[in-house]
Design goal:
230 residues, alpha/beta, two-stranded antiparallel ribbon, 7 helices, binds cytidine-5'-triphosphate, binds the ligand C[C@](O)(CO)[C@H](O)COP(=O)(O)O, isoprene biosynthesis, ISPD_synthase_CS
Length: 230
Amino acid sequence: MTAQLSARGDVAVLVPAAGAGLRLGPGGPKALRLLAGEPLLVHAVRRVAAAPSVRLIVVAAPAAEVEAVQELLAPVAPVTVVAGGAERQESVALALAQVPPDIAIVLVHDAARALTPPDLIESVAAAVRDGHPAVIPALPVVDTIKEVAPGEIVLGTVDRSVLRSVQTPQGFRHDVLAAAHAAAADQLTDDAGLVEKAGLPVICVPGSELAMKITRPLDLILAEALLNLP
Ligand SMILES: Nc1ccn([C@@H]2O[C@H](COP(=O)(O)OP(=O)(O)OP(=O)(O)O)[C@@H](O)[C@H]2O)c(=O)n1
Ligand SMILES: C[C@](O)(CO)[C@H](O)COP(=O)(O)O
């Protein structure tokens, strides 16, 4: 059954899904790879659509797959699909252009974080609603981190107590995200980085292990196990 989005919601969620998935290995665009018989993008969008604050979902699909993705998602939720760009940041900018000015909060997600629970989406949106211009879900770093020089020469050990592993969805005041993208000079790996460069505060809220990014082949096996959790 197609989910209904809330007409009174104040949140748009952008779902960049145009990546090749090179680290996952051969098998086509990552967002269309199957997890328990369904594409990762379907898992991701179903969970986004289940978050009560969401009024609009915009997916950036691989350019050759726009129509296929529209058909794939039609039974899942009402979704706007655009062609993505060569880099994640470009895909986000192309999706952001579809968000009307009356939507106050924009969340930027990854199709690759297919099992992200709706309550994480709500907690990020709530922190933006509470007055934070930029909010990112994050987890403590569990490994010891070394800084290395070329040749894998260890230069030193980084104090991991001040490090966080950052997830999506990352939430922003709409005007803040739009200005950050308009001013972007480099391709960064996340949207909060653009806001940091603009000198605005970014805060972390607790992330979720379920919001893991499916990146390498073992991640698909882990995700399948997570899906089967009671
Ligand atoms: N040009 C791009 C590159 C990435 N993404 C999306 O950004 C998210 C996070 O990127 P990542 O997990 O790195 O995906 P890929 O770029 O596909 O992976 P890889 O780097 O292994 O090729 C994914 O949902 C991916 O589809 C995108 O929309 N457009
Ligand atoms: C946005 C992100 O998921 C936050 O951790 C991450 O930066 C995406 O990086 P990738 O190299 O495109 O996977």
